[in-house]
Design goal:
Shape of chain B: globular
Structural class of chain B: mainly beta
Helix content of chain A: under 10%
Helix content of chain B: under 10%
Shape of chain A: globular
Structural class of chain A: mainly beta
Distance between the termini of chain B: 36 Å
Largest sheet of chain A: 6 strands, mixed
Largest sheet of chain B: 7 strands, mixed
Number of helices of chain A: 0
Number of helices of chain B: 0
Oligomer: heterodimer
Number of strands of chain B: 11
């Protein structure tokens, strides 16, 4: 079945540091890929998405490129802020078969940014 | 619209008791999803509805779990004869019907269940 693996965390950075959170996936067909974010005390929110190979999703300074050859969707940001402290989840959606709209999530990566 | 709401936010129950959670989706969304999240893990899919029809159930959803969505609006998730292993955060999400937008799911804050 489909699966998503994220880099083990947590990740602790100083403000303005470069961020990379690794994500790899296993799926049949042509999944869409997502990053969701959960800020403290809030529900999961969609951060960015990519629907086909080589697509780049971007939002709020975060970027991720859909790499089919390496089955990866790594999240990057050039300069993190304290307000980026949150839990980040990589996810895939596979429209094949009957799993229409079902998301498969990675285990999440806790990011803490210090001033 | 204030987004997806869930009630209660926290529930503590004794093993063997029944519990019911409610989810109110974004009003124009006809798809509704339930996920379960345990500590340190990502959400795991449980079931989803398109309007009032329950179209898919995960094998995680044992026969002690039942979900309904009468009239295609709010949904309830009931757990009968709760076990300690049911302790988790139960998340509800909703989305609109088009293929891609189904994955752009809007999540509620969750109901945290603790079974003692």
């Amino acid at each position: 079945g489909d699966s998503v693996t994220q880099m083990e965390g947590p990740v602790t950075l100083s403000e303005e540091a470069f961020l990379t959170i690794n994500c790899t996936y296993t799926a049949t067909g042509y999944p869409s890929l997502f990053w969701y974010v959960q800020y403290p005390g809030e529900g999961l929110q969609l951060l960015l998405k990519a629907t086909k190979a080589d697509d780049k999703g971007s939002n709020k300074g975060f970027e991720a490129t859909y790499r089919k050859e390496t089955t990866s969707f790594h999240l990057e940001k050039g300069s993190v802020q304290v307000s980026d402290s949150a839990v980040y989840f990589c996810a895939l959606g596979n429209a094949g078969g009957t799993s229409y709209g079902k998301l498969t999530f990675g285990q999440g990566t806790i990011l803490t940014v210090h001033p | 619209d204030t987004g997806v709401s869930q009630n209660p936010r926290h529930k503590i129950t004794k093993r063997g008791q029944n519990v019911t959670f409610r989810c109110d989706p974004i009003s124009e969304h006809n798809r509704l999803y339930w996920y379960r999240q345990t500590l340190g893990q990502g959400p795991e899919f449980l079931t989803y509805f398109q309007n009032e029809a329950q179209l898919e159930k995960s094998r995680l959803l044992s026969d002690r779990f039942s979900a309904e969505r009468p009239k295609g609006s709010f949904s309830t998730l009931e757990i009968q004869r709760t076990e300690q292993g049911d302790s988790a955060m139960y998340l509800c999400a909703s989305s609109s019907q088009t293929q891609l937008s189904s994955y752009e799911q809007y999540f509620g804050p969750g109901t945290r269940l603790t079974v003692t």
